[in-house]
Amino acid sequence: MDHLTYLKNRNKIAIEKQRGGINMLVTTKEMFEKSMKEGFAIGAFNINDLEILQGIVDAAGECNSPVILQASSSAIKYARINYLMKMVEAATEEYPNIPIAIHLDHGPDFETAKMCIDNGFTSVMIDGSKYDFEENVRLTKQVVDYAHSKGVVVEAELGKLAGIEDDVNVDSKDAMYTDPAQAEEFVKRTGCDSLAIAIGTSHGAYKFKGEAKLRFDILKEIKDRIPNTPIVLHGASTVIPELVDMCNKYGGNIPGAKGVPDEILHQASISGVSKINVDTDLRLAMTAGIRKTFAEEPNVFDPRKYLGNARELIKETVKHKMTDVFGSSNKA
Predict the structure, then answer these.
(1) Which of 15, 159, 169, 280 could cross-link 198 (Cys pair, CB 3.0–4.6 Å)?
(2) CA–CA dist 204, 92 (Å, integer)
(3) Distance between first and last Cα of the chain
(4) Strands 162-165 and 168-170
(5) Quick check: is 105 catalytic?
């Protein structure tokens, strides 16, 4: 979108906001209803700075795809919530026809979820998976009650994913699949709006030592038991080999990184998964783009040059996900 068009959109939206006739950000409710009906997934992309955010929303605009922007508590601490929300608001002004939700990823406690809700987040995740079942139910219900009173939707998690991501650190020996019967009981007792399940994905860049495999049988049974509840996959970055190779080619040292192959994620997207989280691939794209610029142009010192190149690589990565993996293109 050119700058003149952006300014026209912004002025139009400013007038509509003054009249009270527009809600800039959306919840995931209608997104998920459409995804379940039409059989596609929506990408949830982690943000923590301007270039990553712009790369994501530029891709959504070009693909005409709904998008979920999400931030962990550590990303919020890094970016600072007021800055983060103003950047997200700018994205909605630039792309007023694209459904955009802002979501708390892996909220560790009620206080963090409340802070995000009070600051304009339209969706929050409360991750009580580290607790026993009853405590997870209690904590999730507490967040659901507060969020729903403010018109905000809640994602919860049942089961434990291995790996490391920001504040989440689970040893492989402690990981466990989601029990379908427990999932049904959990949703009924908490009233959560969507459920993140564990079927074999894991956090970080080193997801598998051998062949990647997800338990689609567990996914099917959970969908059969709670057909109206959107299902979420965490730890589902592809760890795109081309980006790993680019990082290593230009001075990186991340051997053996391996994620969930695109074809498996595509199968998940047409098998009832409504939301697929992506973080590692964006970090790889950012790092690869910067490394490549420094290697090819050793005299560069303008951040706009190397961050701009990284932003473009992020955009192309997200477009690939929306078009070839999740099937969300032209679903806005």
Answers:
(1) 159
(2) 29
(3) 17
(4) antiparallel
(5) yes
By the 8 A CB rule, do 43 and 314 touch? no
Q: Which of 2, 49, 58, 105 is catalytic?
A: 105
Are 158 and 118 in contact by the 8 Å Cβ rule? The answer is no
The residue among 35 and 23 whose pLDDT is bigger is 35
Number of domains the chain is built from? 1
- State the residue for tokens 């589902």: 236
Q: At 146, which CATH number?
A: 3.20.20.70
Residue 15 resides in a domain: no
Sequence-ordered alpha helix ranges (H) in the chain: 3-18, 29-38, 50-63, 73-79, 81-94, 110-118, 133-149, 180-190, 216-225, 241-249, 262-269, 280-296, 303-320
Rg, Å, the chain Cα set: 19
The answer as to whether 13 is a domain residue is: no
Burial of 111 per CB tally in 10 Å (0-12, 13-18, 19+): exposed
Flag whether 163 is in a domain: yes
Domain range for 100: 3-8+28-326
> What token pair was written down for 291?
């490394």
Alpha carbons 213 and 250: distance in angstroms, whole number: 31
Q: Are 206 and 256 in contact (CB under 8 A)?
A: yes
Strands of the sheet containing 168-170, edge to edge, are 168-170, 162-165, 202-203
Distance (Å, whole) CA 249 – CA 311: 19
> How do residues 220-270 score in pLDDT, each as one tens digit?
999 999 999 999 998 877 889 999 999 999 999 988 777 888 999 999 999
